[in-house]
Every structure is written in C-alpha cells, then in structure tokens.
C-alpha cells in the first residue's frame, strides 16, 4: 500500500486479556518501529526491527510485551495479561533502510477496561 | 534521554513565519537533526532533516548553527493546519546504524487567526 497500515484502529479489551496489534509497513521498507503514546504524553520507543538483524527490544516495558516481524513484512505487537496502564495509542513506523524519514501509521488506540 | 531541548509551547499568527528553536548542545559529529510534527490524533509526520548545512523543502526550512549546538525550524507562512506538536530529534543516520528516533516532549505550536 501507499502508507503504513495498522489494525485494528481501535481495541477495547478487558484487563487480563491478551491483545495482538498488527502493522503493515510500506512495501520494501526494511526498518520498522513500534512506539507507545499515552494520553497527553510524548512517544515512547518500544522496539525496532532492521532487516535480518536482531531487534532492539530495549524499550519494551515488561515481559508481557513482545513483537515479531517476519522478514521485511508484517509485524505484530502482542501484549499479554493487559493492564489498565497499557491503555495508549500504539504507533508503528517504517523506513527504507535506517535512513531519512520514517512514515508513521495512524496507530491503534488500545483501551483496557 | 531525548538529547534536545525545546520550548513547551509557542503561538504564531496565521500567515506569519513560525520559528521553532531547538537546543542540542551534546550533538555528535555523525548525528543529524530531524524534525517531525504530530497533528492531533494522527501519527507523526516527517518534516525535514539536516547535518550542518541549511536545508529547505516544500514544507519548511531548517537553519543549523555553525557549531551545530542549536537549530531553528521555520514555517514561512503558517496556516491553521500547522497547529501541532513539533519534535526536534538528533539521531545517527544511515544503513547499519540503530538510529532509533527518541522523541522528547516537543513544542506545541498554536497558529491563531
């Protein structure tokens, strides 16, 4: 597609349930990021994939969070046993190689009730 | 750490130039200055980047001081649609480098009629 696609756009889940968020990057983009943005806050780095290199997981807040990416295609962010503090917009971005401008998706708004 | 310092908020009259400052006194020689903006409820949008020379594109101009310790993003004729949070980021640029984007709190620019 023309841009970075994220699904679902909105997700409401009960505390304790697992959720899976999906990101479809721009075709051919080797670099992919996940960020979290809580209401009224800045963007918080979560994880970074670059080609076949080991991902940079340094931003994942706990072992309840994990992410996968198959090659240079779709990525999924999984949050297990969701907590209310996980409520946020989760943003994905991709880039051709590790350079220039990243293109962000519109995000998934996660609400944990 | 975001490695940059920006004013929390600024106002600008519609049609006038908006000048957004950024301090990055600890920038290293291989780090570029990037600017992104985030309009309410959208993902961040790439604006411009530079190393040491001034840069201009269809959206904005970037002025970097000779010592590279600060920069200014200029929107030459601000419109109401330019109201957004503007992020100044320094990062390593290029293939093989992690170069993850670390967002600070940014400057909230309010363009007023």
Descriptive keywords:
heterodimer, A: 113 residues, mainly beta, six-stranded mixed sheet, 10 strands, B: 113 residues, four-stranded antiparallel sheet, 9 strands, 46% strand, globular
**Strand content range of chain B:** over 45%
| Gap from first CA to last CA of chain A | 33 Å
Helical stretch count of chain A? 0
Largest sheet, strands/sense/barrel of chain A: 6 strands, mixed
Broad structural category of chain B: mainly beta
Helix-strand makeup class of chain A: mainly beta
> Major sheet of chain B, described briefly?
5 strands, mixed
Global Rg of chain B? 13 Å
- How many distinct beta strands of chain A? 10
Could you describe the 3D structure shown?
The complex is a heterodimer of chains A (113) and B (113). Chain A has 113 residues and is mostly beta strands. Chain A is built from no helices and ten strands. In chain A, the strands form two sheets. In chain A, strands 2, 4, 5, 8, 9 and 10 form a six-stranded mixed beta sheet that branches. A four-stranded antiparallel beta sheet of chain A has the order 1-3-7-6, with no helix packed on it. In chain A, β8 and β9 form a beta hairpin. The mean pLDDT of chain A is 92. By secondary structure, chain B is mostly beta strands. Chain B is 0% helix and 46% strand. Chain B has no helices and nine strands. In chain B, the strands form two sheets. In chain B, strands 1-9-8-3-4 form a five-stranded mixed beta sheet, with no helix packed on it. A four-stranded antiparallel beta sheet of chain B has the order 2-7-6-5, with no helix packed on it. In chain B, a hairpin with a 4-residue loop joins β5 (55-56) and β6 (61-64). The termini of chain B are far apart. Chain A binds chain B through residues 4, 33, 35, 42-45, 48, 50, 56, 91, 93, 97-107, and chain B through 34, 42-46, 49, 87, 93-106.
